[in-house]
Write a structure and sequence with these properties.
Blueprint (H helix, E strand, L loop, with lengths): L1 H19 L3 H10 L3 H11 L10 H13 L3 H11 L7 H13 L3 H11 L7 H13 L3 H11 L6 H14 L3 H14 L10 H14 L3 H9 L6 H14 L2 H10 L3 H4 L20 H7 L8 E3 L13 E2 L7 E7 L2 E7 L4 E12 L3 E7 L5 E3 L2 E6 L2 E6 L16 E2 L2 E2 L2 E2 L33 H4 L3 H9 L25 H6 L5 H6 L10 H7 L1 H4 L21 H11 L22 H5 L2 E4 L4 E4 L21
Helix pairs in contact: 2-3, 3-4, 4-5, 4-6, 6-7, 7-8, 8-9, 8-10, 9-10, 10-11, 10-12, 11-12, 12-13, 12-14, 13-14, 14-15
């Protein structure tokens, strides 16, 4: 009994000693938990000597691998992970660190996918959510990034950082109310933005911009008052805040202090409310009338306008399944797509149409689950023929039987992908409707003035008040695309006239598939890269008019730089040794057939074509 008592007493004493004198592994765990990675590594290196590391406790090895990753020693950590831990044994912390290693290797997409698979709703790992949200924004996976930021903003200790990130993503998604809500609360909680990716001045200017976009100039001014250091952008924003309040003396003073900021950011959209293209007509009547005839102004149809579009006169076989037939029919005051699937008939109402009935037109619908779908057949008009054929691009063919009623269209934050390039402001057509409802630009027929010139609310005030700085220089408070230099003026063009991923196109710009992407291919051509910033889309195309179809018109543009004579004031480029005076387009910008579009498109990757191809002069039919 004495021995038992002595033994029990010894066990208690040992337990008490261990509580006050923990082993090295426990000390390392505590160091890791307080982010003292170096201390944890030293302790674990002592505990896990090379002769016993492969037989050591699995959790100690896991902790060592985590510590090495935190210290950037990824190769050593990978050896431990791969040698001792199966994929099924990975915990959220391990998966986060594995993704972190992938980002350091430049494998951003792989890291994003790994984190996405690892974040079940019940996974509580704020660091992973933080990195996933910011990487998602970088990879343009905005819906996923937005949801991750929202989750982060609800986690204890991370609420403020989550709101700062949420505000930044909302800005990318053209959601001023979302930006204002997130950043107002974030700056209230953390005025110095200590827990944010950027400094507080960045967020205050971002918040002010979006308050101005909501026509809340007084609140924007109060936000900017917190910026006490000299900042020309902040002064420029102050000039807009005063302008919206009608305080012109203060607006002039702020504009003067902003110096050259405005002239250096001519194509930056004005932080103002949208006014709609109809508000532009009274002062710009000739330009708007001319623009109304262009394709850009007619490439989107909805509502009653759908009744005037082409309809099928008989069932049209599906591109992939001849047993399936499609019809476009009128039912009262709406247009429907009727698809005979054999065992049933699907009927869906056409919501929008993209393109032109005298060129190429694709209709879109909504299914029973409210998913947007593109009709599998599109209407085309080519020379003297017209009809219905397989829809071009990634919606024309599918191995998924569910897509026979129309292939699903990608949606970003409630906005269908097609809308981004066919209307003035795509968020006006969000489902559900954007906070505060659609802007005035929602009434534009298609692509209106403010798509390229930015919101016009401040512009109207600037004109009314004869807005100028103290030196008498006028500020029209509107984005001036033509006044911008070179390819900077082509930003709006490039954004929509690029079909596909720019980095993939850049690897092989002469691939015939990319003739649909003149924004990317033209930017890569020598005429642009060797023009010293002088050349842009506007060099040859009038943004307010329809494209010229005369070969002589474009050849004159070429010869202005590649002239045989030296009388031109333009910088001289090399003369063509084959034909220095005409027929430039036949060799250097040929027409490339695109059968799926029932058309031939101009190759804008200007170069010497080594092999002859099927070409059509610009002035010929079908161009």
């Amino acid at each position: 009994m004495v021995m038992l008592a002595t033994s029990a007493t010894g066990a208690v004493a040992w337990a008490l000693w261990r509580g006050t004198h923990p082993d090295l592994a426990t000390l390392a765990r505590r160091a890791y938990d307080r982010a003292d990675w170096s201390r944890a590594e030293v302790l674990l290196r002592s505990e896990l000597r090379p002769d016993r590391i492969w037989s050591a406790d699995r959790d100690e090895v896991r902790l060592y691998a985590r510590t090495l990753t935190r210290l950037g020693r990824d190769a050593a950590a990978k050896t431990l992970y791969d040698g001792r831990l199966a994929s099924t044994e990975m915990e959220p912390e391990d998966l986060f660190l594995k993704g972190l290693t992938l980002t350091r290797e430049g494998k951003l997409e792989a890291a994003f996918k790994l984190w996405g698979r690892s974040m079940a709703p019940d996974v509580d790992h704020p660091e992973m959510l933080d990195h996933y949200a910011r990487l998602g924004a970088r990879l343009q996976q905005f819906d996923l990034a937005l949801e991750a930021a929202r989750r982060l903003s609800q986690m204890p200790g991370w609420e403020t950082r989550g709101r700062f990130i949420l505000g930044s993503i909302s800005e990318i998604l053209d959601d001023p109310p979302g930006v204002v809500e997130a950043l107002t609360e974030a700056l209230r909680r953390d005025p110095e933005a200590r827990g944010a990716p950027f400094d507080p001045t960045h967020y205050r200017k971002l918040l002010a911009r979006n308050l101005l976009r909501l026509d809340r100039g007084a609140e924007a001014g109060k936000t900017l008052n917190a910026i006490t250091m000299a900042d020309t952008e902040a002064d420029w924003l102050r000039s807009r805040a005063y302008l919206q309040q009608g305080q012109m003396v203060e607006a002039t003073s702020a504009l003067t202090r902003s110096g050259s900021y405005g002239s250096e950011h001519r194509i930056t959209p004005e932080p103002a409310a949208y006014i709609g293209e109809s508000a532009c007509v009274p002062c710009h009547r000739d330009v708007t009338r001319h623009y109304e005839t262009t394709r850009h102004a007619r490439t989107f149809t909805r509502g009653a306008g759908l009744l005037d579009l082409p309809r099928t006169d008989r069932p049209v076989p599906d591109p992939d399944d001849p047993k399936v037939h499609h019809e476009v029919v009128r039912e009262g005051d709406r247009v429907e797509v009727k698809t005979n699937l054999g065992d049933r008939v699907s009927r869906m109402v056409v919501e929008y149409a993209f393109g032109l009935p005298d060129h190429y037109l694709t209709m879109t619908t909504r299914d029973d689950h409210r998913h947007y779908r593109a009709l599998r057949i599109s209407h085309y008009k080519e020379r003297n023929t017209s009809g219905w054929g397989a829809t071009a691009g990634d919606v024309g063919h599918s191995n998924n039987p569910d897509d026979r009623i129309g292939q699903k269209i990608d949606v970003r934050d409630g906005v269908m992908r097609c809308l981004y390039c066919h209307v003035t402001r795509s968020r006006d057509f969000r489902d559900p409707a954007p906070a505060g409802g659609p802007s005035a630009s929602a009434s534009d027929r298609s692509i209106g003035c403010e798509r390229c010139h930015g919101p016009g609310g401040n512009h109207l005030r600037a004109i009314d008040h004869d807005f100028q700085d103290a030196k008498g220089s006028f500020d029209y408070a509107i984005s001036s695309v033509p006044a911008s230099a070179g390819m900077a003026a082509s930003g709006s063009c490039i954004e929509c006239h690029t079909v596909g991923l720019p980095h993939e196109i850049a690897r092989n710009p002469d691939d015939p598939r990319y003739v649909r992407s003149p924004g990317a291919t033209f930017s890569a051509s020598r005429c642009v890269t060797e023009s010293n910033g002088a050349m842009s889309c506007l060099t040859c195309h009038d943004p307010h008019g329809e494209a010229n179809h005369s070969a002589a018109f474009y050849e004159a543009k070429c010869l202005n730089c590649h002239a045989a004579s030296t009388q031109s004031s333009a910088p001289k480029a090399a003369r063509c040794p084959v034909n220095p005076v005409k027929n430039c387009l036949d060799c250097h910008m040929p027409k490339i057939p695109r059968p799926e579009l029932h058309s031939k498109l101009t190759d804008h990757f200007i170069r010497i074509h080594r092999e002859p191809s099927s070409r059509t002069r610009i002035g010929e039919p079908g161009s």
